[in-house]
Amino acid sequence: MKTYTDLEYLKLSKGQKFLYKIARFFCSIPKKILGLFVALWNLIKKGCGIVKDEAADIWSTFVKGDWKTKVSFLIMGFGNLARGQILRGLLFLLFEIVFIGYMVLAGGYWLSMLPSLGKVGPTEEYDWVLDAYYTVYNDNSFKILLYGVLTIFFIIAFIYTWRVNVRQNKLAEQILAKGKKLKSGKDDLRSLVDDQFHKTLMALPLTGILIFTVLPIVFMILVAFTNYDGAHDGYYSNLFGWVGLDNFNTMLNWNVNSGGSVQSYAATFGEVLSWTLMWAFFATFTNYFLGMFVAMAINKKGINMKKLWRTVLVMTIAIPQFISLLYVSKMFAKNGIINGFLMNMGWISEALPFWEDPTWARITVIITNVWIGIPYLMLITTGILMNIPQDLYESARIDGANPWQQYTKITLPYMLFVTGPYLLTSFTGNMNNFNVIYLLTGGAPTNPMASSAAGTVGYTDLLITWLFKITQGAESQYYLASVVGILVFVVVALISLVVYNVLPSIKNEEDFQ
Amino acid sequence: MSERNSTKPMKHHMGLRTSRAIGNTAIYALLIAISIIWLVPFVCIVLQSFRVELKGPVGYVLPKQWGFDNYVALFKTDFPRWYTNTFISALVTAALQTVIVLCMSYTLSRFRFKMRKPLMRFMLILGMFPGMLTMIILYRVLKDLGMTQANAVPGLILVYIASSGMGYYVSKGFFDTIPKSLDEAARVDGATRFQVLKKIILPLSKPIVIYTILTAFMGPWGDYVFAQYISFGTSSGMNVAVGMYRWLNKDQIANSYTMFCAGGVLVAIPATVLFMCLQKYYVEGVTGGAVKG
Amino acid sequence: MKKFVALLMAAMMLFGMVGTAGAASLAGTYDITVWVAENAVELTKTQIEAFNTSNELGIVFNATVEAVSEADAATQMITDVEAGGDLFCFAQDQFARLVQAGALAKLGVKAAETVAAANTPGVVAAATAGDTMYAYPLTADNGYFMYYDKSVIPEEHIDSLEALIADCEAAQKYFAYEMQTSAWYLAGVFFGTGCVSEWTMDEEGKNFVSVKDTFNSPEGLIAAKGIEKLVKSPFHLSSSSGSEFASGAAIVVTGTWDFNNVQGILGDNMGVADLPSFEVDGKEYHLGSFNGCKLMGVKPQVDAVKAAALHQLAQYLTGEQCQLERFEALSWGPANLNAQASEAVQANPGLVALNAQAPYSVPQGQIHGSWWDIAKVIGDDIKAATDEAGLQAALDNYYDKIAALFKLDNNALLFVGAWNGWNNADETDTFYFKDGVLTLDVPESDYMGGRIVNPGKWDTDKGFAQVVTGVELVKDLGADNPDNNIVFAEPGNYTVTVNGSEISIVKN
Fold it and tell me: For A333, left (φ over 0), alpha (ψ -120 to 50), or beta?
């Protein structure tokens, strides 16, 4: 593609400039992908470099260190204890004891079982005397996987701590060599509310995230490579085991019928994904603009009882969705009160198919979502609208701008700039908006063409509700749900990456200070 | 021509006023319409809860026979237990989650340490995984800890607060708007970081604290899917959503739909009252914070 | 195996071991959890109390009775068997899933014999997988019939679907018949026109080995046309809740469990009847129904003594007396033969309507758990169809998905036997190769052939040309066999083995 010089570019008409920009963008994609690989390669190289440096540093610490340091390589915290840093030393020692104890008592077992995920499944025995069957349960694949992963986490933590322990010895030697004093336990404690205050503050939240978010996610990803389902639950029915990439293969390549109209999984996934994106787009932007509109209406000069209007709207937030949405879902039913009202008024002769027809159902969920979303947006935008400097409007009015111009030239750009990050998070949030779909339609109406070996798929199903249905379906195919989960992640991450690179206000977090 | 010219200022003035009046009337009409649309479901739920003649769903709104029967019936079920469970978990969650979220967001807003950016990016990525599947794993972990079924409440609280550190965005945004010069001045005077937080930042953060408490308090009231896993068919460990949802089962709805509505009204009361009282802070908190994401 | 066990049992009884030793060792107190439907909680508590006081074995149960819907029980159990109820009730359609998930303990040999003798054969079959009984019959009332509002529907119209639809449309009232969200109601129509969906399990009762399904036959098309009349009516409501009478319905197809509810709403205007007939091409077809039941299962136990005690309780709770009590308190129709014969049961109007429907109802055998999801979308598919080809496509869709189930289970090939010629779909059976081996019953017919296909596809994957062993057992049709079908020379039982691209056939 021809690259214009600046001068040539300026000569182009507006339309040509736009097309040129788009073309440039697409031309740059291969380069960007190449760049990604280069960056990845650099990262690996850097990682190798770090490992090499670390190893060299550990070796030199050992060779050059005194006997206290050398003992510390085996007995963690020994150097600290010997040099008078009792608190640190004891903590290191305690950690080592706990680690070794855990590995001997349990960790070793879990780790050794991890490659097979269990060898002996449950067996059924018959008691002749009692005329009763009973079951002997043996290995538990689920626990092996879970605690195996946990053990690996623990080992990584241990290696890291050991490395810190070695480095501390080196630093301590250097400090003592310079004739300075080492920090005492009291100093350490003080620094926890001062220099190192961030560590204190984040210790608890990060531990929670590690155990209750990271560990389950790692587990979930690993499940995609097993055959974990209702008939292989790992303990009560059968063991489950590793199956490699089979599940991805099923997901992406499996075809029910090459000639018939039943979709392959990949096609079903594509269809659900396209609706998910459509839904996220409409749900985000209808709420955004209508919410802004309502906020502006309430904030308008000369409108009284502002608080009353807001309170009415805010009630939707206060009432749990499982009550309000279930009721709304019934209201829109074929024989619900909305259809009843319209028929009684004589406006329609037969019920409107709010939940029966695919297109109607999709529109109805989006509209209902407006009902839920406007109050939040109203609250958020109310504050921001008040923050817009009023003199901007004054001068615009003097220049003769009508309200619409004021809106498009001042309010909207300001709002978009300020709420850019919010839009992104609410877009990805809407993609995973389980409650609204689950409580309103449960995915209905069903899509007869979709592959239903993993439960029925409906026209209003989002990826997240589909995933849930797969786990609850007749065969409880957790492995397939896990594959879908990973694909959802990939999609969300891609979108975020693109938006992240386009929106300026996300990147520059310091701009507002 | 001249007449028109002479009256122009006058007309213009009146035109502005009338057009504003018309505009305002239109807005009032709109607001009234919106209020009706927004209130209809709630009014209907309240009306249903007073219906006595039939306990299942019906096609009309106004009860033919009014009474408190459904509310009385509620207290003969496990509803008080579910309500207590939910209330306790909401209270404890609100307290602990606020502490955790504030710790996290304050740190990420105020400190500049080596792992800060990677950490934030990492949490952003974590948030993109659908949480649905991890529930079954969390359920097993909690089961091993003995926090399921009848002991579901501590288990629920643990899960609600454990990952709450990831929801730091809004309050970090709020802290970002508090000038850093305040901290620095105090630091120069010899205050520790902890003292800065306690003496300077917190007093300025009332809106965001209230916002965080409010959102944390709301969460447990509506949680269904996860609470269902944790209570696992044990009535004494259920929250209101799980317990009441069962009344809508096909074989049960004919006997307990109005009771469901009555329960719904009772569930909505604490949250509604809180929201009405604290709306102002909610707006301040969310505008201080959400704008920064 | 079962026979062998029975033989041994008999031998042991001879020595007088079983009775005394078993009775003595069961005494004790057990903490258990029992899952029953919400409205049966109180009754079950009293029944367990009665068991505690009346049993002669010294068994005392300290039972926690929890309300878990019979429709949810399987999903809950499968999520975590250990935390599930020791005794739990469930609707029959979840049976296969529960067996596969290892959530049901087999009945003891003696218990199985007693229970099988005391209850209706259909329900006993429903609780049996392979040749083992896995659950206790709780009810046999899970069939459906028609409730109607006498003030809207004239009595003389109740036999004609077309007239009923017209009445509803004229009165702007709804006809509730759960055609789009439930395979249970939908499939009945197909059975009414003579279609079948018969599934066979292996001896273990854990895998399905073949299916004979004729929903995509000409009879199936007739059923589809009947369904079409209903679902395309603007006043059709896909629901089976008796409460719909309070929201504008004039007809609801549901079961005895809704009797009190409907009576409460309609009062004297309530009418009950068997399902109507519909007319296609001048011929009347009575709407069929699917007859199911509710079962009670015992969770597998690690302790044989507790297991035996629990089975005693389950047997008591599903015995004649308890079934009758349940009928009186909740109007659940009994499965026990003696209970069914009682006067009160015979006189119940709901059960009378159910009996009138009985000739047109098909008992549920064992059906693949995924079938329910696959079959229930036929209704939506029919609604979307615009012509007869569309209806046929809906049925073919359904069939493709069923065939594909075997692939998902086993990654194996299928043998599609078209016993009366390739285009005659009503005589088609689908079998799957487990580990490449298949045992096949070939019936006597004009064309005893079939083809080996990849699941979900109709094109022959391999066939006659690949047969290396047993060539003498199949007919060589030469040019008359462009599809490479395997056509057997005579009926009988064959074992077909596929090894790479070679097929060997042995007659058993």
Answer: beta
Query: Nearest-CA distance from B213 to chain C in Å?
Result: 33
Q: What is the DSSP string of A438-479?
A: HHHTTTPSB-TTS--BTB--BTT--HHHHHHHHHHSTT--HH
Is A135 in Cβ contact with C458 (below 8 Å)?
A: no
Subunits next to B (3 or more Cβ pairs <8 Å) are A, C
Q: Is A478 found in the same domain as A332?
A: yes
Domain boundaries B77-290, CATH class: mainly alpha
Do A212 and A90 belong together in one domain? yes
Least confident of A286-295, B201-210, C32-41, C315-324: B201-210
Determine, yes or no, domain membership for A251.
no
Residue A276 lies in a domain: no
Domain count, chain A: 3
ipTM (interface pTM): 0.84
> Backbone phi, then psi, for C263, in 5-degree steps?
-60, -35
Q: Which CATH class is domain C22-141+292-363?
A: alpha beta
C142-291: CATH number: 3.40.190.10
What is d(CA C239, CA C182) in angstroms, rounded to the nearest whole number? 9
Tell which residue, B145, B123, B162, B149, has the closest CA to residue B235: B149
Main-chain phi, psi angles of A224, to 5 degrees:
-60, -15
CATH number of the domain at A304, please. Answer: 1.10.3720.10
Residue-wise pLDDT tens digits, C398-442:
888 887 777 654 445 677 777 666 665 556 777 777 667 788 888
Q: How confident is the model over C219-229, as pLDDT tens digits?
A: 899 999 999 99
**What is the chain B residue with the closest CA to C242?**
B254
User: Of the candidates C69, C76, C243, which has its C-beta nearest B56's C-beta?
Assistant: C243
Domain range for A450 = 281-504
Q: Which residue type does A400 have? A: G
CB contact under 8 A, B57 and C243: yes
Which of A2-11, A151-160, A257-266, B4-13 is most confident? A151-160
Contact between residue C230 and residue C236 where contact means Cβ atoms under 8 Å apart: yes
What predicted TM-score, i.e. pTM, was given to this entire model? 0.85
- In chain C, list all ranges with CATH 3.40.190.10: 22-141+292-363, 142-291
Nearest to C296 by CA among C59, C411, C136, C58: C136
Q: Which residue of A has its CA nearest to C379?
A: A448
pLDDT tier for residue A48 given thresholds of 50, 70 and 90: very high
Residues 49-88 of C with CB under 8 A from B: 66-72, 76, 79-80, 83-85
